[in-house]
Structure formats: C-alpha cells, structure tokens
Amino acid sequence: MNPNEDIPTDLIDLLSQELGGAVLYANDDFFASKDNLILPAEAVWKEDAYTDRGKWMDGWESRRKRIEGHDYCFIKLALPGLIRKVIVDTAFFTGNYPDSCSLEGCVLGANATPEALEKADWFTLLEDSKLAGGSKNTFDLSYAGKVTHLRFNIFPDGGVARLRAFGEVLPKLNRWKSLGQIDLASITHGAKTLSQSDMYFGLASNLLKPNRGVNMGDGWETKRSRGAGHLDWCILELAANGKIEYVQIDTNHFKGNYPDRCSLEVATTLKGKETEWTMILDEVKLQAHTLHEFEKELHEIDNIRFVRFKIFPDGGISRLRLFGKVSSQGWEEARLRDLKFVNQEGAKAYFSSACGSKKWVEGMVSAQQGDGFSSLESIQKKAKEVFQSLEDKDWLEAFRSHPKIGGEKAEDKVSQNSSQWSSKEQVGVEHAEEKTLSRLAELNQAYFEKHDFIFIVFASGKSAGEMLEILEERLNNETKTEIKNASIAQEKITHTRLEKWIKGQ
Predict the structure, then answer these.
(1) CATH class for domain 343-502?
(2) Fewest CB within 10 angstroms: 52, 139, 236, 363, which?
C-alpha cells in the first residue's frame, strides 16, 4: 500500500512548502489561514475543535461572500516549471466548499510582491471548473510554458484543504554555471524518478530532495522481501547529461530497516530491457542512520543521463546525491529546453546578450515563439538568415552595444551577460603593455571620429598587439567598407556567443 498513491511519481509538487513554495496573499482567509493550502501533510479533521471565528478547519477558508466578486490567493512556486496536473483537495469541506475554481499563471522574479502580482500579465492554466466537496478534484493541464507564480481563484467563496501543482522543474541554469559541480540527482535541478520495484512505505522521489530527511517517512522505503536473492531498485533520470564525481548515500533515520548493501549503474540512453547498464559504484555495505560518501570508489564514466540504484535486499534510503559536472551535450539540451519554454521577454534577454540589434533580436524571438529551435545549428541558421536582412542602421545599433577595445563601457546600455561576454572576448588586452594600450586608445578615438562608430573586431584569441595591427590596417578605409568589415566581425562574434551560451562555456 503506497501512502502517496495519488501523487504522480514522475512529477514533483512545484508548490512544495518544503522546497520553498509560499502562499503570499489571500483576499480573505477569515475562517482558516491561506498558509494551510500547501502544507505537506494530508488535511485532518478535529471533531470538536473551534476557534473564536468558528469551526477549526485544516485548509484555506474564506467567509460567506455578501458582495459581488470571488476570492483568490497568490502563490509562489517553489521552483519555476511546467505544471502538468493539479489536485484541488476539498477534504472535510462538504457544505462549505467553492462551487468552482480556476487557475492562472505568470512569470515574475522570486521576490515579486503581492502588489506586483496584482498587476502581472496572467495567463489561463485552468478554465473555471466545477468542484466536488470532500474530494480530490484532479485536472490535467495543457499549457506548455514556464510558470513562477499562481493565482488560485475560487467561485464565489468557501474552503479548500490543499492545492497541489505537479509538474517538471525548469532549473536556473545560471546557478549551474556559478556552482560548476552540481547535484545531478536533485529535483531542484530537474532530476526525476522514472520507475522503481516498490515504494510501499515511501516515495522513490524523496531520494532527490535537497535537504536531509526529517524522519523515517521522508525517504524511499520498500516492503520486507521474503524471497532469496531479492533486490529492490529505482531508475533516475539526471537533471542533465554529465559526469558523476562524488556520491552520497544517506540512511538517515533508517536504523532497523536500512538495506544491507547497494550499487549504482549508469547509462546514456534508455532502451527498456536492452539498456546497456555500466557499473559506476560496485556493490558496497551500508550502515544504519549514516551518511555514506564515495569518490575514489567511483569508475570514470562520461555523459551519464540515467542511473539505476539497487539496494539489497530491501529497506529504506533517505537521500541519494550524485555530484558532478554537466557535459557539453547536457548543456545544449538544457539550454534548448529552457529556450523552448521561456516567455517572450526571457527570449529577448537571451538574444540581446548575443547581439545589440533590435531587429535581429526581434527576428530571433519571433522564431523562438513560433516553431522554436531544435538544435544549435537551427539557432545559428536562423541567426544568419536574420543577419542577411539587416540594414546599415541595424548594424550600427549592434556596434553600440560593444565597449571599445580596451574600454570598460559600451555606448548603449547592454545586459550583464553581454558585458561579461565582451570582457571574456577582450581578455587579450588585460596584460598588454601600457604603450600598446595607449596606442589602442588613441587609434580607437581616431577611428570613432572618422566613422562615427567604434572599431569592431572578432577579439577572441587575439592579443592586444594583434588587435592594434588590425586597427591600424582598417583605420583609413572608407566608412562604407568599415561598416561591412565590422558587420562581418559582429556576425562572427554573435555566432560564437550563441555556441558558447548553448554549450555552457
């Protein structure tokens, strides 16, 4: 008997209070607090419990509405993601549940205030839908886009015990970049469980939670086996393809029911029974209530995406952590997925860091919002196509987003990502002699005074001296020629930035 049989095992509750979900505001929670709505435990009934406002109820309950309108609340998702399934649980609300409900989503920053949410651009996730009292009302959602916050509407008033929003995480890839080594098996990065032999006492997905287990119920636990040679297993899909460098297997709180042994196998692709599993951690002994760590014991295997975790013969594991680095393939797939589901403003920010031409950015965003991009090659093909449609004024606009060679600021305000790209591309001037830097500054100014735009060159891999030579060669060209030369450099810069961005470099 799985105590969590209503929970989709391949999805996570994106509203999880444990992971950081929060009810930020309710227009009315007179009878029962809005905060109860996302509590992790199932709702309970207390027969004779009353407060000074009425019957104690385990949920969110508004007063009986005597004016026009309906009640609603704002909720911050624990993790940005795609919502696939919603459960509106009206447990113990039988004569006081809402007649119907609807759900809206938006994309805002993690620190968005109720005031900002009131003005947000909301899109419909669930149309106005009838509810039944004392029931787990389940709805499958079809909206295929990123969501960070919810507006939960009830019509016209009443009580809801719990709200669950199951879906897939869209991880914060900038955090991957800053950390370098990440827990590839963490649900916060998008890892998930695919299948398991048994989870009688606890969900396999508990293995992937970010914090240590709070009790014996907060882990993966199988029933007792009675056959010789028995083993239990679960298969995980990592957040991205990568190389596992360090493993933690935690039996926290499992004292008389931990497995005797365990092992780890990995694969790049799943082919059902034909999957080629390779051992990365040979069978090892486990201890009760212990955090086990493995590093030197691991076999070196690259580009891993799937893991089969075996326990012998049965028992409970609190957490499994698989730390490592995302591979080039992993980065490409993660970036493309993120780009697929990002909204228009997000796509605009991505492409603006690669090129400062608004027309070029608009062309790329239009393609992303349309058919989308399936590969780096499709992005670069579209980039070239849009470049070919640009006029001189568009190129000049793009040039203004670059700082002068050896300079610190661009003429036009650019994104932080664009500034970082420029700094990396001009690394060749960091250790140049003062004489070379002075000459660069002098000729940069002369170039600008002659052509009315800064000197643009593909700077990656070039020393300050090499860039100075190119500048000296091009300084006396006609402006028309230099717009062409600079546009060629700009296209090459953008091409390289897109490639490095997609591959996580």
Answers:
(1) mainly alpha
(2) 52
